[in-house]
Design a protein that fits this description.
The complex is a heterodimer of chains A (199) and B (301).
Chain A (H helix, E strand, L loop, with lengths): L15 H9 L14 H5 L10 H9 L3 H6 L2 H4 L5 H5 L6 H14 L7 H16 L4 H10 L3 H10 L1 H9 L14 H17 L1
Chain B lengths: L4 E5 L10 H13 L2 E5 L11 H5 L1 H16 L5 E4 L2 H16 L1 H12 L10 E4 H9 L1 H7 L8 E4 L26 H8 L3 E2 L11 H6 L1 H17 L4 E3 L3 H9 L1 H8 L7 E2 L1 H8 L18 H6 L2
Parallel strand pairs in B: 1-2, 1-3, 3-4, 5-6, 5-7, 7-8
Helix pairs in contact in B: 1-13, 3-4, 3-5, 4-5, 7-8, 10-12
Classes of the chains: A mainly alpha (199), B alpha/beta (301).
């Protein structure tokens, strides 16, 4: 006699996370249009570097796999090329949703060790402090976000490229470029963060 | 022929560093095509593709809202930027603000904390869209008196220049997402030859290439391979990050894949500057390419 088939028919998807994504992630309200055709994953230039492609990631959202979704490398390997957005036959803003999920993962501390979250934080630091991206300082802050030894290693590995840029006059030397009204900008960004937390 | 027109110009952060040669050449060619450009006063960063992750959705929109409010002060309806990421953010957020009174209210509430307000409906354009829709290829061809005869150019558009807005009404409907023709049209208007280069809208890896080049070298290898196979002397791209990535990682790619690439990567505005007979340094800024475009430089007047 064969063993009894395990009773999985009663297992239900937990829709709480999918509903939360629908209401809180920009573009998330369009995710229910996804028919799992896989055009996005097939079009993705960097899919080979991801844990799972966007199609599967969306299915995982539907299945309530919050931890797996927010820990997935997919969020950080997306290069924002928007090919999936252009090709999706159902008009799902795939890139925007992936970026929105990355933003949630960074905010909730899911990705503290992941390169892109460190880079995003270094980038935002420069935008907020100077009103501009100082590519040189952002890169250095990013390199050293991995600790002193790793930072020196990464900086040395890129030294030749950096010197080439300096020679071509494409790397700024000296004090960072700053906007005149950094105070005004910082007040606006602070207010924006308050409004976002309020609404 | 279209009338002389003034655009408010958003140079973006790369214009002061890695993309200086795009800014210089863009500023040089626009007046030659009878288009005035006036900078946004005290413009700030657009947030690029990671600002949303670092700062959140509304702060990212407010960054762009500040630029739009500052652009409004200039009194022109049309804003232009030559950087793909600046365009993506400024145009994308502008359209969202135009569509939603609620969002405009929130953006203005934040802007007010710094004494600004965005009340107009400006129109943000990509420099390439302006060249196609407003200037027109005939005018570029007419102005290109120093034809780049014999120069073979692989036209690599990249992604964010055309995606996700090139085929939308608000984006000017100026070309396709997959196989755009405008870059080859510019090459040929300059008298050069556009090679049969297939991966026109392939991605270089964008900011992921800056963070983790080892994850994206394969993307650039595909682009370089196709460019060399097409017989190109140079690659032309309108995007400052594409230009920098494809240029600075060639050595790493050679090491990783055992290849021998050393192909110059230039901007279409640099091609135009040379074809217009302008100065190779002051207008075309060819001295700022780390892989020298010797053949193009020799054609300069």
């Amino acid at each position: 006699m064969t063993a009894q088939i395990p009773d999985q028919a009663t297992r239900k998807y937990d829709l709480k996370f999918a509903r939360w994504v629908r209401d809180n992630v920009p573009g998330g309200d369009k995710m229910n249009m996804c028919m799992q055709c896989g055009t996005c994953s097939g079009s993705c230039p960097n899919g080979t570097e991801m844990d799972v492609g966007p199609r599967k990631l969306f299915m995982m959202v539907r299945a309530g796999m919050k931890e797996e979704v927010l820990n997935s490398s997919t969020l950080w390997e997306c290069t924002s090329c928007y090919r999936c957005v252009a090709r999706c036959p159902r008009g799902v803003p795939v890139t925007y949703i992936v970026q929105g999920l990355a933003s949630v993962a960074a905010r909730e501390g899911y990705a503290p060790k992941i390169e892109n979250a460190n880079f995003a934080n270094s980038f935002w630091w420069s935008a907020n402090a100077f009103g501009k991206t100082d590519e040189r300082l952002v890169t250095m802050k990013y390199f050293f976000s991995f600790g002193l030894v790793e930072g020196v290693k990464k900086a040395l590995a890129n030294l030749k490229i950096a010197l080439g840029m300096v020679k071509a006059g494409r790397m700024h030397i000296g004090m960072p470029h700053k906007i005149k009204d950094t105070k005004g900008l910082q007040a606006m960004l602070k207010k924006a963060a308050e409004i976002e937390a309020r609404d | 022929m279209s009338e002389k027109k003034t655009y408010t110009y958003y140079p973006g952060c790369s214009s002061e560093a890695t993309g200086m040669h795009l800014d210089t050449s863009f500023r040089a060619v626009m007046p030659e095509l009878e288009r005035e450009i006036v900078d946004i006063d005290d413009w700030n960063c657009c947030g690029a593709s990671v600002g949303l992750i670092g700062g959140g959705a509304l702060p990212q929109t407010v960054l762009n809202g500040r630029n739009l409010a500052k652009a409004e002060e200039r009194g022109n309806t049309d804003v232009v930027t030559a950087c793909a990421a600046c365009y993506l953010n400024t145009h994308g957020n502008n359209e969202k603000i135009k569509e939603s009174a609620d969002l405009r209210g929130k953006v203005n509430e934040a802007l007010e904390a710094g004494g600004l307000k965005y009340s107009e409906d400006l129109q943000v354009h990509h420099a390439m869209e302006v060249l196609v829709n407003d200037v027109g290829m005939d005018k570029i061809k007419e102005r290109a008196t120093n034809k780049l005869e014999g120069l073979k150019v692989a036209g690599w558009v990249g992604c964010q220049t055309v995606r996700p807005f090139a085929m939308t009404d608000a984006g000017g409907n100026y070309d396709t997402y997959e196989d755009p023709e405008f870059l080859d049209d510019i090459t040929e208007a300059c008298g050069a030859e556009a090679t049969d280069f297939k991966p026109k809208t392939n991605c270089c890896g964008g900011s992921v290439a800056v963070m983790k080049p080892e994850k994206t070298l394969h993307l650039m290898q595909t682009i370089l391979e196709a460019a060399v196979e097409s017989g190109a002397d140079v690659v032309s791209t309108p995007c400052p990050l594409c230009q920098t990535n494809l240029e600075m990682y060639q050595e790493a790619i050679n090491k990783e894949f055992g290849t021998n690439y050393n192909i110059p990567v230039v901007f279409p505005t640099q091609l135009m500057a040379v074809a217009f007979g302008l100065d190779s340094k002051k207008a075309a800024a060819l001295h700022q390419n780390t892989i020298k475009a010797d053949k193009l430089e020799k054609m300069a007047k």
